[in-house]
Design goal:
- GO terms for molecular function: endopeptidase activity.
- InterPro entries: CAAX_protease, Rce1/LyrA-like_dom.
- It comes from Flavipsychrobacter stenotrophus.
- α5 crosses α10, α7 runs antiparallel to α8 and α8 packs antiparallel against α9.
- The chain has one domain.
- It starts with 9 loop residues before the first helix and ends in a 29-residue tail after the last helix.
- It is 71% helix and 0% strand.
- With 318 residues, the protein is mainly alpha-helical.
Length: 318
């Protein structure tokens, strides 16, 4: 009979998960560095410094490399560890259908309402001088993002949507909410700490200086959505909407203007932000009123009987 990782102490399980993540991501980097240049006939250095003016083949290869890295760093280790850790890996990761299907829609509406606030916060952060080195790194990251959003054809749009929206939405939710949040709750039995720590790690991995507060808040919101619905699919839907809407807007802008890069607006539209706050408040209130939260023992490796009066999390999230 297979000995599942759940029989090991929590610290050993975490170490195994981190080693698994490091190993798979290292294999991905090796594949990207050795195989992709041979397959596509372009040097690795050429795909590391792309811009929206780069040749389409370079942008394509860079996107493929991004997708492989995302898959092997987030989705693959989470799925593999869950399979080796528990006889019910899908349940272990929280990939169950929401008890109330309306939660999928409410999660998306909550994220839609929060997006203008995140964008305004990022704009405000952009006015802060973090120094020449930080600014150079930020500009380099934004240059790559603009390259990915060139999308001259519909096929390019589909490829970008798959790699930049769908893969991260699934992989990052599995990793940060399905695994990191679970490990934190398992060791602390504190849902607030689990939400905050998973959001901190989410923001740290994305490594964006101007976007750091927005990414942290988005990560915390996704963790709260998971906690209130009890289904990781709701967080995946909200995350996919957040990523995908920006790609759709960029593609539509290019189709309407036919000028290449989408226009940049550095100002804050406060009416847009106010409307988002209203939508967020209404959708979050409905999500709260209809919540089906994670039970107190949701991170346990072995099911434990509970009293019906203690199935839910502490009052702060109830």
């Amino acid at each position: 009979m297979m000995k599942y990782f759940r029989t090991y102490p929590p610290g050993m399980q975490l170490l195994l998960f981190l080693l698994m993540t490091f190993t798979l991501f290292s294999l991905a980097l090796a594949f990207i560095g050795v195989m992709l240049p041979k397959v596509y006939g372009v040097p690795t250095s050429a795909i590391q410094n792309i811009t929206d003016k780069s040749a389409p083949v370079l942008i394509h290869v860079s996107l493929v490399a991004q997708g492989i890295g995302s898959l092997m760093m987030f989705a693959a280790p989470s799925l593999l560890f869950a399979y080796l850790a528990h006889p019910k890996p899908i349940k272990y990761l929280g990939l169950k259908a929401p008890q109330k299907p309306i939660h999928l829609l409410l999660a998306v509406l909550v994220m839609l309402g929060a997006m203008p606030v995140f964008m305004a916060l990022q704009t405000l952060m952009g006015h802060i001088n973090f120094g020449a080195e930080v600014q150079a790194k930020q500009e380099a990251a934004e240059t790559v993002a603009r390259a990915y959003l060139t999308m001259p054809t519909f096929a390019d749009f589909i490829r970008t949507f798959l790699i930049v929206a769908i893969l991260p939405a699934i992989g990052e939710e599995l990793f940060f909410r399905g695994m990191i949040m679970r490990f934190t709750h398992k060791s602390s039995h504190n849902i607030v700490l689990a939400v905050l720590f998973s959001a901190i790690m989410f923001a740290f991995v994305h490594a964006s200086y101007t976007g750091l507060p927005s990414i942290f808040l988005a990560g915390a919101l996704l963790a709260v959505i998971y906690n209130l619905t009890g289904s990781l699919w709701c967080g995946i839907a909200a995350h996919l909407f957040f990523n995908g809407l920006q790609i759709i807007f960029a593609y539509v802008e290019k189709g309407n203007t036919n000028t290449g890069a989408a226009p940049t607006d550095t100002g804050i539209q406060w009416g847009f932000v106010a409307g988002g706050v209203v939508l967020f408040a209404g959708a979050f209130y409905m999500l709260w009123k209809t919540r089906t939260p994670l039970p107190r023992n949701w991170s346990d490796d072995f099911d434990q009987p509970q009293n019906s009066t203690t199935d839910e999390n502490p009052a702060i999230f109830n």
